[in-house]
Structures are given as structure tokens and as C-alpha cells.
Predict the structure.
Amino acid sequence: MKKVYFSSLIKEKFSEDFEAIKNSLEKHGIFYEFINNTKDIWCRDYMPVKVSENEYVQFRYEPDYLKGYEYLQTNPLELHRELDINPKISEINIDGGNVVKHKNKVLMTDKIFKENPEIDKSILIEKLKELLKVDEIVIVPKQPYDMYGHTDGMLRFIDDNTLLVNDISIESESYINKLFKTLEKHNLDFVQITYPESFLRKHEWGAYLNFIEIDDIIFMPVYGMEEDKYTVDFIETIFEDKTVEPVKIPHIIKDGGALHCISWMK
């Protein structure tokens, strides 16, 4: 039985948006539960990374963007008993939002090097491959303006060797070239979303790629505006064998994340 977990804070802080999430999940027979004793709604970042059916890795959760705001820093070690899991504990400092895993590959931004300066880069990569049980770690440059340095709103897998890339037209040509050369170096094909000008006049970042995929359903965050249709249609074309379910969560998006950020699956 598939089940999605959310911080219990979400129903208090974003009741309207969570009603839309709840209705979408129930429409497709997906169950959900809440995680108690959290400090914010972004549970993807502090929860363990699932490695296999019954294996998890709990990375150290000490993000630099919460320095000075430690009262917002959830202690993930306090949550394991509640969820009846016993993950392997790692001292490597990583947010879950910076781990996009697909079979034997993982995508991460180069922020992992800044977060773990005491570990040699090559040793860090080998340790991560072992912990996550993958053959390849693909390190991409983080977007310059993104203080979080997460991959889950930037790149997503379409299949084993093809990525969906968010609209990065606001970035410099040098950054775009660096990103695409990195993907090519790892023999990864990619398809890039481009947003209408009317969207880009309203938003610098498109939250659409921050979706959750459960079986053959993609629960896709939308803003509740006319431009949503363009990207929903695009995603339906890319994932033609899946059902795309738009979920209107404008307030959560405005707060800096979307569906992948706020969810976790056991």
C-alpha cells in the first residue's frame, strides 16, 4: 500500500493547499499520514533517503541556510521510532532535496562539497555511492541564486538516461553551458522546459518539476493561473504513459518549495 508522509505542521500552516493535496491523493487511492515533532514542513530535507525497499540512510541535517535559525532545525533522529524505521546513520551533511535517485544513478549539486569541506571530494563521492548503493553520482553546478542547492526542482529523470531540465533561461550562458556539458559528460540526454514570457514576468522559478511520482501518477504542483496549462500539457507529452494530476498549492510554492519538498515516502 503506497503512503505519503507530510509534516503535521502543513495542515495548520497551509490548510487550503493541503486540502487540494488531500483531494488529489484520495482521488487516486493514495493514503497519507503525518510526521509529528517537526520544526518545518520541508520533510524531504531532514528525513532519511530511501535506498531500497527496506533500507534508508539518514544524513546529517545541518544546512547552512538555517544557521542562526536553529529553532527551525528538525532533529531527524527523534522521528525514526515514530515511523518504525532504523536507517543507517551517516555523518555526511546533505539535504534530502539534493538527492534525486533513479535506479543506479543519483543527481546532486556541487553544494555537497561546500557542506562537507573536511572530506576529500573523490572520497566523498565514493562514500555516497556506497551508502546510496548506486554506480554513479552525477554532480551538477548549483544555480547561483539558489541558497538551498537542491536538485529536486531543477532536474528530474524521464527514463534511465534522459533528464527533464527546468527552465534556466534567466541564468548566464556560462552556467547553462557548464550544466549541459556536465550532463553530456555523463552520457545523459535531456529535455528542457521553457516557460511562456507571461510566466517569467511573474516568477523567476518554476515549481512544476518539484512533483511526486507514485506508480503511474505524477502529482504536479501548479499555481492556479492560466500559464499552468502550458506546462501541464508539456509534462503530459513527456510522460505520455503516466497520468498527470495537477495540484494547486500556490501558498506553499510562494514559501519556497512544492510537492517533492514537503513529502516523504516510507
